[in-house]
Amino acid sequence: MSLKKDLEVLRDQGLTQIKATEAMKDLNDIRVKLLGKKGPITNVLRGMKDLSPEERPKVGAFANEIRDTLTTAIEARKSTLEARALNKQLAAETIDVTLPGRQVHVGTSHILTQTMDDIEELFIGMGYQVVDGPEVEEDHYNFEMMNIPKNHPARDMQDTFYITNELLMRTHTSPVQARTLEKHDFSQGPLKMISPGRVFRRDTDDATHSHQFHQIEGLVVDKHITMADLKGTLEVLAKHVFGAERTIRLRPSYFPFTEPSVEVDVSCFACGGKGCAVCKYTGWIEVLGAGMVHPNVIKNAGIDPDVYGGFAFGLGPDRFAMLKYGIDDIREFYLNDIRFLHQFNTEG
Ligand code: PHE
Q1: 8, 138, 171, 299: which has the highest count of C-beta atoms within 10 A?
Q2: Tens-of-pLDDT digits for all 348 residues of the chain?
Q3: Mutate which of 131, 156, 172, 231 to test ligand 1's pocket (most atoms within 8 Å of Cβ)?
Q4: How far is the CA of 251 from the centre of ligand 1 (A)?
């Protein structure tokens, strides 16, 4: 019976194809091809009309059996492929809970900013206002108003980047004294201000010099301000920054805009004043310049120096931070090497 043979061949070929199918889409194509309306089994069933009445039910039953066999095989293959796809997806989506987490580095203020913020807060607490001034400054404010006329030898103390004859990069924060003084209304009370900011000098960069660094200017002007006020204020500053046991001493010095002028030393925080490498065995460390505001500076701002007077100081946050944290090269502040900056990261 050749029909039966044909069906057996169909079945065996079908089963082989089904087994070899790797993709769901191919499996579907095979199903349509084998069992569809135009497929060979349908064809066989159609050809049964030519068979004898005895053979017809046998072949019919056999064809149905083969159709069932193929259908079952297709379903089985379908399950296998589905399971395989699911396993593949699960494996791909596996989360390794033992992997260490990614570290998130939080930035922090630059150590100079931290140093300046700290000093600002101290003075704000003592009733000072914080004033800003321009970095590109007029010769008029940087020098003339500060009692340093053109051709004055004191101009040599601060090697200047000139932009034009009248415009320059400010060499100190002192011009903010002049700018604030000439605007201040003394009927509203005394003038107490600090002014932090960047300053510029034509220096060759090395471990202790930078063509760009920072200052915090301080100025107090009122009636009856004395040098004792200056000393007391700077002592508060020294203790705040370098430790409660510190004392200060004033040594005579010269600045054109203060008279008398002083250099201020703080007792060595490393050895307590006994003498060590940090203070070069003197027990003292020079930290800033200061003095009583020169009458000419008061007069230049349109104020009567016989009635009003005060004190001023200028400190270097770069130097403060270098001393406090043992930094031996000022250029570290401006290189932005993350290994340097990170040491002062208070955020972790
Ligand atoms: N401006 C001075 C300097 O840069 C510092 C200073 C300020 C000294 C105020 C006295 C008073 O060297």
Answers
A1: 171
A2: 577 788 888 889 888 999 999 988 988 888 888 888 888 888 877 877 888 888 888 888 888 888 899 999 999 999 999 999 999 999 888 888 898 988 888 888 999 999 999 999 999 999 999 999 999 999 999 999 999 999 898 888 889 999 999 999 999 999 999 999 999 999 999 999 999 999 999 999 999 999 999 999 999 999 999 999 999 999 999 999 999 999 999 999 999 999 999 999 999 999 999 999 989 999 999 999 999 999 999 999 999 999 999 999 999 999 999 999 999 999 999 999 999 999 998 765
A3: 172
A4: 14
The parent domain of residue 64 ranges over: 3-92
**Shared-domain flag, residues 189 and 247:** yes
State how far the Cα of 292 lies from the Cα of 261, in Å rounded to an integer: 7
Q: Are 208 and 276 found together in one domain? A: yes
Instruction: Note whether residue 44 is domain-resident.
Output: yes
**Which of ligand 1's atoms lies nearest the C-alpha of 199?**
4
Q: With a 6 A CB cut-off, is 172 part of the ligand 1 pocket?
A: yes
**What spacing in Å lies between the alpha carbon of 160 and ligand 1's midpoint?**
15
Q: Say whether both 80 and 117 belong to one domain.
A: no
